[in-house]
Amino acid sequence: MGLTNNGFFIEAIDYYHCMQFEGVKVDCFTFPSVIKACTTVFATIEGQKVRSRIIKLHLDTNIYSCNALLLMYAKVGYAKDSDEIFEGMPVENLVSWNSIINGYVLASDGQSSLMCFNKIQVDGLKPDKFSIISDLGACALGHSLLNGMEIHCQVIRRGFQLD
User: What's the maximum distance between 2 C-alpha atoms anywhere in the chain?
Assistant: First the structure.
């Protein structure tokens, strides 16, 4: 939805309700924008209703909707909900991993964040600058100087310091 991309978050949620009322068919492209709007204005209950609708329409394995839900739950501190969504995803991409890693940091669970960071590398994915930033936050939470130094070495090897 263009409304969400242009900062009209309340209007995007209202428009979504109008679409439902009018019987307009929603799809997997509608939900990420609505969830983003809910996340931005901390409309968690509304976001949970959107999640229920996603489940009802059997779109709960759509990676874009799942990533948006992961981020929403992470930002409001609902780590268990984030975990549930992440575990239910048929496939995870780097955005999914970054969302769950950041979610753990936001929930002050540095250890789980570091475990996920290590897992993505074991699985063959290359952490990007968002992964690195979140994981450095995890190192700070856990006072893990050694892990922080290892991540710093990755930053230098991969040339992220130039960004």
Answer: 57
Contact 33, 12 (CB under 8 A): yes
Question: Residue 16 and residue 141: Cα distance in Å, rounded?
Answer: 38
Distance CA 124, CA 93 (A): 11
- Print the domain residue range for 21: 1-91
In a domain, 105, yes or no: no
Residues 73 and 121 in one domain: no
Please give the Cα distance from 67 to 85 (Å, whole number).
9
Report residue 134 as tokens.
């979140």
> Pick from 60, 91, 122: which residue ends a domain?
91
Prediction pTM value:
0.81
- Sign of dihedral through CA atoms 60, 65, 71, 77? negative
Q: What is the pLDDT of residue 1?
A: 59
- 83-117 tens-digit pLDDT: 999 999 988 889 999 989 988 888 888 888 889 99
Bigger pLDDT: 48 vs 1: 48
pLDDT for position 38: 94
Reported as type and span, the H/E element at residue 79 is helix 79-88
